[in-house]
Amino acid sequence: MDKQRDFVLRTIEERGVKFIRLWFTDVIGTLKSVAIAPAEVEGAFSEGLGFDGSAIEGLTRSYESDLLAHADPTTFQILPWRGEVDPTARMFCDITTPDGQPAVADPRHVLKRALAKAADAGFTFYTHPEIEFYLLKSSSYGPDGPEPVDSAGYFDNVPGGTAHDFRRRSVRMLEDLGISVEYSHHEGGPGQNEIDLRYADALTTADNIMTFRTVIKEVAIEQGVYATFMPKPLSGQPGSGMHTHISLFEGDQNAFYEEGAQYQLSKVGRHFIAGLLRHANEISAVTNQFVNSYKRLWGGDEAPSFICWGHNNRSALVRVPLYKPNKGQSSRVEYRALDSAANPYLAFALLLAAGLKGIEEEYELPAEAEDNVWSLSDSERRALGYAPLPTSLDQALRFMEESELVAETLGEQVFNYVLLNKRKEWQGYRSQVTPFELKSNLEML
């Protein structure tokens, strides 16, 4: 760590960095930033930077408000969009109390705690997110809703289109920040794009997702358009998901791989999937944390609505992708409910906890879904045991408040804050009179 600190201090001097932004997130996953001068960096490493935690959503209670942000030198990167005028860098922070204890409501710490539990069981947790978002002409909208930048579809090549330049610029910027990109393409909705980040350990991935959202927003501003990670911004068009590929490693061996097993999927992998399925409802209020998230989950297209798993079945909640011969290390499972607006630290912590619970308790994996689950009737789905995911944030919160797994993984303070904050959102949503009701009822009744 000392070597890393020296490297940061040397780079700041050599590159003439004028400002260093210290980044962390609140419980909902909003990025927070405070800029310090180069002279303050050593202090940010050794003592941390003091701030009022009670002013940050869910971070602390008012009577214990003093917190410290400790810069993590391993996350140092120069921000490419700032250019050569006043070069600016960033570091993610770990939040502590004045006596050096991790702040219980720091989302990064919640994930670190879950990863430590996995490490005690001999596992490292890797994730690979496919992040979807919409590019709109602006953040304003008329009676027909927001206006996308194009009317292209899945994998479409749009000569001279905004999205090409946008994706090229974004990918270059992400690579400059040390974030490896695997694919980028136009998605199914008009103005919808997807950029997939390369596999990394879950903490690095969560940091990368927070950086990714900032990069996408910055490039959009630069190009005169607007980017949104809202789960379902356009009625009648696909929502934006963040399908996440997951694997556990024991040392350098993929714990999900077993040669000769069905789909080359090991017992550990099967128990892990069973854990994801059994606890899917309980973790939904975090993996799908907004009222709008449930418009995506129940809006058709490729969003999963029912709790089941399948081999290469895109209608299932958990998918086991096609096995590549001689590539056992690439064995993985894909969780398809997560959306692009989730707090990645809390979401990954809960996905890991659910899977580990399945391994610990040796949950039995139910039979796989071979059919397109959406095309079955309700009674067929019931007969096959495919329970629905929550249909609303309200329902998701009811599952969550009964969950020991979620309470234990998030810790009491984060657990209570999420419930409180999200109930408030649901009440605000429920009490409004929508254009739909006015259009349907005003003249008729």
From TrEMBL:
SMART domains: Gln-synt_C
Keyword Cytoplasm: no
Keyword Membrane attached: no
Positions bound to L-glutamate: 296, 302, 314, 336
Residues given in the record as Mg(2+) binding sites: 130, 132, 187, 194, 243, 334
Molecular function (Gene Ontology), one example: glutamine synthetase activity
Pfam families the record matches: Gln-synt_C, Gln-synt_N
Protein family: Belongs to the glutamine synthetase family.
Protein's recorded name: Putative glutamine synthetase 2
Species for this entry: Microbacterium ginsengisoli
